[in-house]
Structures are given as structure tokens and as C-alpha cells.
């Protein structure tokens, strides 16, 4: 599928561009303490609780991680230590891009301005963005917005800041639950799903599918 060139290409960062390795961080902290079965249960619980935490009242990402780890430990019946959650959080700014990202991004950045809307903090995100290998027109964090995706507020804030409407952007993400469902509900018709295996396909939401960011230039005929 070839899409018309938008005024801006907007991106989810963590997971889509940055190799957001929360599961790996949890394994590095807890792996020697848990059986493989218990470790798998903790990782899955941690994934679900992170989503639940961001749907509530605004709180810093550090608290999202802390609460999610604490709830996960309670669920599988192990002791929670705040320093374990802090170790996971401290990894976030160290994570770099998926291998396919720099080359693909740099090609489209020559033709179309790139924007990030991220569930991140102001003091974290630029460490990740600087590793992506391409210039960004605008970077917006959940801290700046005062809300996390999948809530609509971040997308609405982004459109207002860019001075454009839903018809003027293409939104790119590897997640339906955090990004593409909300984009659909807001009338963003031009969407790209990066199939990184995080979630199953859901054609109802209408998108171009690519396996990784190396396929993004071709979506716009670049």
C-alpha cells in the first residue's frame, strides 16, 4: 500500500523505534530468583499493569514502573523491593533503536518532517531520540501533555502543537492498544503498523503494514 505524503509523520517511540526492553530488564533483575514459569508470569503481569497504570491519573513514569512491578510481584507471590523497580527504570535511557531504524528514518526525514509522541519523561526521551540516527521536527512526551497514550489527550495536544488536523499526518506505531486504536478513533486515516510481533494484526483499524522501519520509505514512494 502506498500512502499520500503527509505534512508530518508522527511516531510512537518506545517499542516502535527504540527497542523498549522492559521484559528484558525484568528478567535481568529477577531472572536468577524465579523459575522460568514464574518469570514468564511476572513479565506478562508487568506488561498488563503498565497499561493499567497509564490509564489512571497522571503520574511520572518512574511511578508507573514502580507500581507495575509492585503489583506484578504481589500477583505472583514474591517480595517487592523498590530498588528492583528503580533498576528497571534506570535502564530506559540506555536503550537504543531497533537495527532497522536509523537507515529507514534518515531516508524519510529528508522528505517529510518527523515527530515523536512518546509515553516518556522530558529527562529521559532525548537520550533515546539521539540514538535513532535521524533529525526530528518535534518531540512530545507524556510529561509535557500530562497524559499517557492510549488516552486521546496526547494526540490532540500534538495536532494543536503542529497546527494541523488528523488528515495531515501519518501515524506510525507497532501497537494497536497504545496508538493505532486511538488514532482511528480520532479520525487519523493514514496509519502504518510496524509488525514487530507485539500484537496480532487487526485490519479493522485500516493501516499499511511494514515489518520494520526499513519499509517506511516505500510506503510513501521514496
UniProtKB/TrEMBL annotation:
Its EC number is 3.8.1.2. NCBIfam families: HAD-SF-IA-v1 (TIGR01549), HAD-SF-IA-v2 (TIGR01493), HAD_type_II (TIGR01428). Keywords: Hydrolase. Pfam families: Hydrolase. GO terms for molecular function: (S)-2-haloacid dehalogenase activity. It is an enzyme of class 3 (hydrolase). The keyword Chloroplast does not apply. This is 2-haloacid dehalogenase. Gene3D superfamilies: 1.10.150.750, HAD superfamily/HAD-like. It comes from Rhizobium giardinii. It comes from the Bacteria.
